[in-house]
């Protein structure tokens, strides 16, 4: 065991300030009341926070309550003093109206905690979708030495000898239910089979994406993201993470040293290669803004679109989290990209080495699950960034577009990247659920489904609802997907061909607010355009009509936070952060 003494520990201002013995006594006495000693608190050892996101309310991250014991041991073994504290709980599937609302709330709370208390460094316990960006955004703002520990994915789910993946099985089960092939009881049993253990979603949804990207950004130990939650290796890496943060404090290795522009470019490329979630651009934009890195949305297309999909995980592929780990996890993916010169190898990471040093020699252990770069599952698997008279920006994940959809919509030899059709417009998920199966809604195989009122203001936090299934009668005819457009988000576990995150949203009186059922919309993926085919005069008249009516209507806020966030939140294309918050940067030094 090594004692670490660092001259610049900020916790000394609380616990060991000879110039203000009064306050030192006050600060000290209360932290002694549960058994810490004056000797420890004044020993010059760093105080390391463990930002605990796990609780009974947050099942995906609950295993962090167990892992924190090993983190503590690691911190102690390296000479630090652990202090564990709660982070505002976020459970993706449990929070209403949507967990998206809570990302910025958890961010705010964690910023106050890291800034306002005597902490020299912090272990961020990440996992479920929004917990990861909330923690990284806060660490970026405060800029205290920080390292992330993933809770790890659940074990693979199984049903009748086949892998059942989180979320992805729900979309399939819904179709089976709508087609009358299973009943309610079988529906629940099938869905529950995908969640056999502690941990987060075992598919390449937003959780696996964000935990993988955290490692690609350099904010967690190499090889740590993919370890399944119940594995013994997960306990071991918890201990290593605890040890390492003490060294990071001694080295003064801060988020701003790791979260550089190069690190974000690396993460964007890894996101394409893994088939990452459409929530990733929102969250990485938010983290970048809080650390002061300029990362325009177009970067996702310019640096990410041409990267092939090489990870064969559901929803784009076949396998699940355990398989990803055994195949080599994130280092194997980064290793493939390094082989093509697609990684900025000098980017610093949490272990004090560069990503090149960490991953250059990483090998694929199972080529069914991680393909070599030369034999990808799909070429050009990144996001297309779209704009037009409907919105300033939106994205489409091309890697999940199924052959059926390509054949129906993208097979015109004269214009292979464009499709066009009449729209049916839904105002929010409730409207969609009420009308989707009603024959009067008039949906045909030509229809483009539009979801609006689902952005950060309209449905506070932005709902994951743009991926809409076709009506039951079309599913029974074998049509499994229609193109969807919307100002909301989409679950990372969905395989829907959707154009989403449209900004500005209808509730901010963006172009989608002017759309009417029956209008024709034309999408050109090659040109990156999405336009309603009505002339400017008609658009202007509709805009005036909307203004006269007092703007796009959306439901009233139900809680104080919904109302506060609605007043200050930005659009999805800008990371949906609390506008103005990025003015506060590197505040641990103040
Ligand atoms: Fe928490 Fe998927 S619901 S990780
Ligand atoms: Mg989600």
From TrEMBL:
Stored PROSITE patterns: ILVD_EDD_1
Molecular function via GO: hydro-lyase activity; iron-sulfur cluster binding; metal ion binding
Domain Dihydroxy-acid/6-phosphogluconate dehydratase C-terminal: 368-576
Keyword terms of this UniProt record: Iron, Iron-sulfur, Lyase, Metal-binding
Family, as annotated: Belongs to the IlvD/Edd family.
PANTHER family: HYPOTHETICAL DIHYDROXY-ACID DEHYDRATASE (EUROFUNG)-RELATED, HYPOTHETICAL DIHYDROXYACID DEHYDRATASE (EUROFUNG)-RELATED
Protein's UniProt name: Dihydroxy-acid dehydratase family protein
